[in-house]
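Email to the structure team, subject: Aspartate aminotransferase family protein model.

Hi all, the expression group asked for a predicted structure before they design truncation constructs. Nothing fancy, just the C-alpha cells so they can compare against earlier work. One-line instruction: predict Aspartate aminotransferase family protein, return C-alpha cells.
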Amino acid sequence: MNIYEELKQLSSGVSLGLQCNPKRFYYGKGARLYSEDDQEFIDFSAGMFTNILGHCHEYVEEKLIKAIKRPWNTHDYSNEDRSRLLEKLQIITPKHIDTFEFYSTGSESIEAGIKCLLSFLPPGRRRLCVFKNAFHGKTLGARGLNGTCLSGERAPNHAVIEAPGEKSTESEIDRAITEASHVLNDGRIGAIVLESIQNGPSVNIISKRFMNSLADICRERDIKIFADEICVGLGRTGKNFAFEHYNLKPDLIAFAKGLGNGYPITALGGRRAMLNTYPYGKPGNASSTFGGNALGLSIALSTMEVYEKEKLGIRAKKLGKIVESKLTTLRSTPQVKIMGYIGLFWAIGIFNDSAQILSDELAIRIHRRCQENGLHFVLFSGMLHFAPALTITESELIFGLDILIEAIKFETGI
Ligand SMILES: Cc1ncc(COP(=O)(O)O)c(C=O)c1O
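Reply from the structure team: attached below.
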C-alpha cells in the first residue's frame, strides 16, 4: 500500500501536514529524519515537540535495549528506574512539588489534575478558572478547559479570563488584570488551570506583569494553580519549566512531551497534601494500566539524565537567540506574522493578503516547499509551528531556518 492508499484508510482527523504533504520516515538521527523516498530532512517538529534529545539517541537506546529484556509491565510495582527517575524529578521541579503520578498521555495527566483539584477543594469552591485560547488536550475533561466545544459537547461551567501576550499594550494588560481580579472574586473559584506560555493556536508568551499580578491574586485568595507544562516543560523555553519565567508557584504541574523523548510517558507532580487527598488519593485511583510502565520509566530516566548532564534548557536559550536574529530577517508583511518565540519554540502565522485571516492554502504551499528542500515541521491551520530537538547543532538550526525563510519569501513574494 503506498502512502496515498494508506491515507484513504485513515480518518480525516489526521494532521493537516500529513494529509497535504505526506511522507513516511524510516530512520532518524538527532535532528535529522530520512524518508522512504530517500530524502534527508532537518526536523523542526521533533515528533510533535517531544524528542528533546533528537531521534534514536544512543544512550537512551542502550538503556532501552536492557529494559526490553526485563518485564515491560508489572503494573505500578515497576523497578529501580522509577526511584532514580523520582530523584531526578525532585531536582528539576520546585521543592514543594514532592509527589508524582505517571500516565501515558498529556490529556490523562490533565484529567488526573482536574480530579485531584475537585477532590481537594472544599465544596463551594470547586469552580475552575481557565485562560481564553487555552489548550489542555482532547479528552472530554481536558477539552472542557479549552474553552471550545464540538457540537454535542456540553460546555463546562468554568470561568474564563483573557491572558494578554507580551506584546499587549500597558492598558490592555491593566484591563486584563482588573478583569481577572473581578472574575476570581466570585468566591467559588478554587483553582486556575493555565499554560504560562500557550501552545496553539499560536505561541502566546503571556505578559510577565499580568502573570505576576495573577499569582498575587491567587495567593491572596488561596486559589490553587495547576500549571500545564505538557508542551513547554523540560527545557523547551530555556528553563526547566515555562512558569519559571514568572513569579508563579504552582501547586500542581503536568508535564509530558520531553519526558519520554517521544515515548508516551507523562507525569503529574504536586504537593503531597493535594495528591494524597481523599477520595482522590484512595489506593488504586492514581494508577492506570500503562501509566508508568517499565519501558517508559527507563526511557524517561535516561532522557532526564542526558537532559540534566547536557544542560539542555540553557542550550535551548542560547540557540533561541539564533532563531530570534534569523526571524528578524523576515520583513513583516500582512501575510507573515511571527506569533511568538522563546527558546526553541516558535510559531509563524500565514495570512491572506487582504483581511487578517489565516491562510491554509499559502501555509500548505510553504510547508510543501520546505519539505521539498529538506525541512520538516508541524503545520496547523494557517500556522507553522517549530520545536526542534534541544540537541540540534547550530549549523542544522541555521540550515533549517534558511530553508524556511527562503520558502516563505518565495511563496509570499516578499
Ligand atoms: C499544553 C498542552 N496540554 C495538553 C496536551 C495534551 O497532550 P496529549 O496530546 O498527549 O494528550 C497538549 C498536547 O499537545 C498540550 O500542548
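The chain has 14 helices and 17 strands. The mean pLDDT is 94. Ping us if the truncation boundaries need rechecking.
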